[in-house]
């Protein structure tokens, strides 16, 4: 017992010392911040802003990777059938929901507030109590979709789709450039507007009231029974909601020109989306920026969503949709998987007898011919990668499947030991694998540039190029970006 008491006493004295040092640290930090002029208030506001922006970013990526696809065939590929990768339109009237009528086709309707209700978020605010703002790329907006009229079409949303928004830092340097070849623009931007400023060039302070043409907007003004939603129908470009000061982005987002940053080729206006941006065009610029007199003229803070950040989540979603369909197919076909389509021709999605590695077939006539107990088509319900599914047209060029010999249509007994191996780590005894080719890496060509000679090396890397077990799964690098799921 004395030894225990001694240890406990030492432990308590150690804890007391740690507490004392922590208290001293807080005192010293407070004194230092007071000396430098940075108050606890500004630190807390900054923390609230950063937390809100981070939460919004995660919610948008989750939204894009979990879009409900349903099981409704989309006979017209250019219509509004949901696609993995879709992001909502902005909230234009401060209701918290995405304003999709009229559609956000025009750039003037692709910048507004973050649609927090649509994203299932709380009413996020920055450190100054302002709701977040949001801009979305034309290539990723969910309404109206780009028209993917066929496999490898230019309007498709898949691993090769670029962002269309250019971003500059607060020194005017281009960080993400939608005007380069290949483009490096971003997919979306979430802004924290901060406190109201006098906008450069306008000469007037930003107005964040419910005034509409100098008269209170009854739908907005709470003293008139309003709820801070702006009047209008969304018609026009810019939309008529913007006639109410509270909903006009110029009253929240800032601008700067070459009189402050000499290297700017044109004014950079965060309230005016322009895409894709050519070398001398307008982009979005991060604050803080001060002019020669020390006045803050840009205090917008934002986070961006890059293609590299959103792409892996979308590819995983696509791979698992295909794997789910194959599981359902096997469940109704004696536990067996179908023959694949050709691996090197994305114009032919006919299943090929005896082919266990290739692209995903549209139907299974040859599989059914070789084994009449197996389905000739995808399951009638629960699977949405049929040929007339609008979202699937976006991806079918880039998706491959591998069937273990022990699970193919003519295997004597279904099961291992003749199964797939996936490395690393070593996964053995797998009956089916789905591989989504990532974006075209250096030296690879997708789409029309790869046809008619489209070897697997144009799409897949490492051992996956051989199209046989063992298959490789690995984190994405500059030389590998295949996504592999299996069962």
Task: Tell me what the structure shows.
The protein is of the alpha+beta class. The chain has 2 domains: 264 residues, no CATH class; 177 residues, no CATH class. The protein has 5 helices and 20 strands. Strand 16 and strand 17 form a beta hairpin. Helix 2 packs parallel to helix 3. The protein is elongated. The N and C termini lie far apart (57 Å). The N terminus is likely disordered.
Structural category is: alpha+beta
**How many E strands?**
20
Q: Please give the count of helices.
A: 5
Approximate helicity band:
10-25%
**Span from first to last CA?**
57 Å
List the helices and strands and how they pair.
Elements: H1 2-36, H2 40-65, E1 111-113, E2 133-136, E3 167-168, E4 174-176, E5 188-192, E6 211-212, E7 215-216, E8 255-256, E9 268-269, E10 284-285, E11 289-290, E12 296-298, E13 301-305, H3 307-331, E14 357-359, H4 365-370, H5 390-393, E15 399-403, E16 420-423, E17 427-430, E18 432-436, E19 471-472, E20 483-486
Parallel strand pairs: 3-10, 16-19
Antiparallel strand pairs: 1-2, 2-5, 3-4, 5-13, 6-7, 8-9, 11-12, 14-15, 15-18, 16-17, 18-20
Question: How would you summarize this macromolecular structure in one to three sentences?
Answer:
With 487 residues, the protein is α+β, with helices and mostly antiparallel strands. It has helices at 2-36, 40-65, 307-331, 365-370, 390-393; strands spanning 111-113, 133-136, 167-168, 174-176, 188-192, 211-212, 215-216, 255-256, 268-269, 284-285, 289-290, 296-298, 301-305, 357-359, 399-403, 420-423, 427-430, 432-436, 471-472, 483-486. It starts with a helix and ends with a strand.
């Amino acid at each position: 017992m004395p030894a225990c008491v001694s240890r406990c006493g030492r432990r308590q004295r150690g804890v007391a010392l740690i507490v004392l040092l922590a208290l001293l640290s807080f005192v010293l930090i407070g004194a230092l911040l007071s000396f430098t002029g940075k108050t606890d208030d500004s630190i807390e506001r900054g923390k609230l802003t950063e937390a809100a922006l981070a939460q919004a970013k995660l919610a948008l990526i989750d939204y894009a990777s979990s879009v409900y696809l349903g099981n409704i065939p989309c006979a017209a590929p250019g219509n509004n059938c949901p696609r993995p990768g879709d992001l909502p339109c902005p909230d234009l009237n401060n209701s918290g929901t995405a304003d999709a009528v009229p559609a956000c086709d025009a750039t003037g309707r692709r910048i507004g507030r973050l649609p927090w209700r649509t994203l299932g978020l709380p009413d996020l605010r920055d450190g100054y109590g302002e709701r977040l703002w949001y801009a979305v790329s034309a290539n990723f907006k969910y309404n109206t979709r780009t028209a993917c009229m066929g496999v490898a079409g230019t309007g498709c949303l898949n691993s090769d789709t670029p962002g269309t928004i250019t971003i500059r830092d607060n020194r005017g340097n281009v960080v993400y450039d939608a005007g380069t070849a290949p483009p490096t623009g971003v997919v979306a931007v979430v802004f924290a507007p901060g406190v109201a400023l006098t906008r450069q060039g306008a000469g007037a302070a930003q107005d964040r009231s419910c005034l509409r043409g100098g008269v209170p907007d009854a739908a907005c003004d709470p003293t008139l029974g309003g709820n801070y939603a702006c009047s209008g129908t969304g018609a026009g470009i810019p939309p008529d909601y913007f006639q109410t000061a509270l909903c006009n982005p110029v009253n929240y987002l800032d601008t700067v020109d070459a009189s402050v940053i000499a290297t700017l080729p044109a004014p950079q206006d965060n309230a005016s989306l322009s895409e894709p941006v050519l070398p001398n065009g307008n982009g979005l610029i991060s604050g803080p920026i001060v002019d020669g007199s020390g006045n803050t003229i840009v205090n917008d803070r934002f986070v961006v969503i890059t293609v590299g950040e959103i792409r892996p989540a979308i590819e995983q979603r696509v791979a698992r949709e295909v794997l789910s369909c194959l599981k359902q197919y096997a469940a109704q076909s004696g536990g067996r998987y179908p023959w694949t389509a050709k691996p090197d021709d994305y114009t032919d999605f006919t299943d090929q007898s005896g082919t266990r590695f290739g692209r995903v077939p549209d139907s299974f006539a040859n599989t059914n011919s070789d084994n009449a107990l197996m389905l000739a088509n995808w399951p009638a319900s629960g699977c949405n990668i049929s040929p007339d599914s609008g979202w699937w047209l976006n991806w079918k060029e880039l998706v491959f499947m591998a069937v273990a010999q022990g699970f193919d249509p003519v295997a004597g007994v279904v099961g291992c030991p003749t199964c797939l191996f996936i490395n690393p780590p070593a996964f053995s005894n797998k009956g089916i694998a789905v591989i989504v080719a990532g974006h075209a890496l250096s030296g690879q060509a997708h789409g029309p540039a790869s046809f008619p000679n489209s070897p697997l090396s144009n799409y897949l890397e490492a051992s996956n190029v051989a199209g046989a077990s063992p298959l490789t799964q690995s984190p994405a690098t500059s030389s590998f970006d295949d996504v592999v799921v299996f069962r």
